[in-house]
Predict the structure.
Amino acid sequence: MDTTEALDMPIPDQLEETVISGKKDIDLTTVGDYTTENPRMKIRDVNVFYGAKQAVFDVNLDIGSNSVVSMIGPSGCGKTTLLRCLNRMNDTIDGCRVEGRVEMDGKNVYARKVDPVLLRARVGMVFQKPNPFPKSIFDNVAYGPRIHGLVRDRTDLEEIVHTSLERAGLLDEVKDRLDQPGTGLSGGQQQRLCIARAIAVSPEVILMDEPCSALDPIATARIEELIGELRKNFSIAIVTHSMQQAARVSQRTAYFHLGYLVEVGPTKDIFTMPKHQLTEEYITGRFG
Amino acid sequence: MSPLFLIFILLALSSAAYFFSQRRMLRQTRDANITRLNSLPEHFGMLGAIWAGAPALLVYFLWLIFEGDILMGQVLAILPDAESMAATRELLIGDIRNAINNPISYQMASEEVRMAADRYRELSQTASIALAAACLSVFAICSALVLKFLTPRVRARIQIEKFVRGFLLLCSTLAIFTTIGIVLSVLFEASRFFQTVPITEFLFGLDWSPQMAIREDQVGSSGAFGAVPLFVGTLLISFVAMLVAAPIGLMSAIYLSEYAPSKVRTAAKPLLEILAGVPTVVYGFFAAIVVSPALRGFGATIGLDVASESALAAGLVMGIMIIPFVSSLSDDVIAAVPQAMRDGSLGMGATHSETMRRVILPAALPGIIGGLLLAISRAIGETMIVVMAAGLSANLTANPLEAVTTVTVQIVTLLVGDQEFDSPKTLAAFALGLTLFFVTLVLNFIALYVVRKYREQYE
Ligand SMILES: Nc1ncnc2c1ncn2[C@@H]1O[C@H](COP(=O)(O)OP(=O)(O)OP(=O)(O)O)[C@@H](O)[C@H]1O
Ligand SMILES: [Mg+2]
């Protein structure tokens, strides 16, 4: 499997040092091929504004089927903003405006007649901070299937809840206490519960915004393992601040800087031979 | 020197002490070449003012509190047959007080009382001079002490902090003791009532007609003090009120906090608060003049007999009155539900209203219930609207179209007008007050408990 292959990859330390020049005008046009063979979603010429302030500039990027693309970059460079464009979660923010196209199956999800509610059922999201609802573990996972009417009876529902928890790697830990509140779990368990909740509606794409930033290394390892598993069925986009994590879980990596997509390419290439100066500075730890 | 003038003098002297101490401290430090004081010069100033002024002010206020009693004691002592009049002492004191304060009563008073009043005036003249002398000399002594002991080595900052703490403590104890005092006095009067009317009759009696013959020759009912009709009336009106306020308040809170664009919200919230600021008496005549006749007319067209003063009218208007209360409390708890919950639900593909119904409301529910309980205790305690719109007749009925009366209204009517203070009729007001106090207390306890429990959830 690719993840193990990715694990053996050289980590940025071994790169040659390059002196940062004091150059002012750095070219921010995207380096590398933003397309991929089998795209699930396509981001085309997307600009995002918060009021008058532009947060994302002219981004083009494909989300490949059954693969993981990771988005890295310094804080405030627009990773979350771009990720939230993919399932139109930005609609819920007052004053946020998106220009450009985000395509799924060749159709623009920002087209007038697209219902964001249905889109979000197809493009699920896991947030940075685990946010289980103050309901029982069972009801947390059953939430999506219930609102989307995916089940006919209780047995169906139990089936879905069990398989989702199973796939999120949480079932063994919680199967005796499905009726207890989800908020009573540990942080790592809560995050896996949120993943179970997201996959319970069988989305096609899963967006993860720094899913491990609140977790310890063991819980992180479990979730990374889980992402490797999930890749078989879903397309995944993950925002992360850990370059090791990006290297371990993703097949493609996109580096953002000040709202621009600066470089994108196969993860291996990005970390071993970055083409753009900014990417290199970032992954060698001289920036951000 | 009049006491009012005296207090201004004392305050002026204290501020003088402030400036003086501050200056003196600066000079001393300069002379002694001290570079670092342990406190700011202002601290020394304040401490100087407190040391010099506080004892004198204390004397002043203690005197004001006890002056009346002391002087009256003196006056009574010189009255010739004070001993024999022990029984009517209270009355006598009342007469003397009247004579002192009111020239007409003075004219009409008996020889003895006039004498006493004269004596009282004389005494209080002397007393106020004595008070001035006492206060000023205390001030002088304390100032001398300040001169002697207020040196740069005094830790003024710490002392001031202690003083502030003590002062705050004093204020809060005052508030607590006032509450306790009120409760005790109500309790005491109520227990007097329960000596004449058995507590079981009061709590379970179905008949309320507190009119009693005051004089022997009056023909009147002997009085019945069953509080059940009053409590039923209160509950009925509160129920109608909550039927109006709970859904409307809650829905408007949901709309304002979740759906309304920020422009609407900024405009609508102050408007709701204006609704909360309308005096209840205005609601009262709104109920009596507009709502009651309208209900009556409407009832007539559909063939219902609505009393001209009905529980329905009072309840409706009271409900309108507590809408802002419910809505702002619910608004707060809904806004306190973390954004992450909303994101989580919306991110699952839930619609706005599904998110509201399935995630936000359940999460906010305990807080909302707490708010509703607080609103109920408000409705129960409300008087004005009911006086004006629901009437005074103590019907035992569950029909909101009839006139009913409530506990608070009865308390008002029992105490309004000339009353003998220890007839069961007046004392009944205290018993009612006590019961009402108890009910609202329990409601508030439950409400606060529920609200607190809810708060812990997200912390
Ligand atoms: N709701 C908002 N309103 C206004 N500006 C916003 C809002 N959210 C984000 N921004 C701005 O948009 C820019 C991009 O923010 P974004 O959250 O996408 O960054 P990020 O790359 O996810 O950063 P981090 O790694 O710290 O999470 C930032 O400059 C931020 O200040
Ligand atoms: Mg972010």
Observations:
- The pocket of magnesium ion (ligand 2) is lined by residues A 79-80, 209 (CB under 6 Å).
- The mean pLDDT of chain B is 85.
